[in-house]
Amino acid sequence: MHEQIDTHFEYFLKYIITGVEIIGALIIVYYTIRALIRLLRKDHMGCRDALTTGISTGLNFLLTSEVLNTIIAPDWSAIGMTCAILLMRAGMTLLIHWENKMEHENSKLKE
Questions:
Q1: What value does the mean pLDDT take over residues 59-64?
Q2: DSSP state letters, the chain
C-alpha cells in the first residue's frame, strides 16, 4: 500500500516538475520575443529590461523545478547533481538581478 502511494506521488510530482519547467521555458521564450520586437523598434533599454525580466522570472520557475526534483531524487549522487544545478541557476538569477539593478542606477544617473 505504502509503495503504491509513493509510486503515484512520484509520477504526480514528475508531471508537476515537467509543467513548471515548461512554464519557465515559455516565459523565457515570450520575453525573448518581446525583447526582439523592442530591439527592432530601436528601444535598446526596453530590450535589455525585457530580457533580464524574462530570464530572471523563467529561472525562478526552473529553480522551483530543481527544488521539487530533490524530493524524488533516488540517491545522493542525484541529489548532488540537482544541488549543483540549483546553485548554478541561483547564481545566474542573482547575477541577472544585480546587472538589472546596476543598469537602472546607471540610467538614473544619466538623467
A1: 88
A2: -HHHHHHHHHHHHHHHHHHHHHHHHHHHHHHHHHHHHHHHTT-HHHHHHHHHHHHHHHHHHHHHHHHHHHHH--SHHHHHHHHHHHHHHHHHHHHHHHHHHHHHHHHHHH-
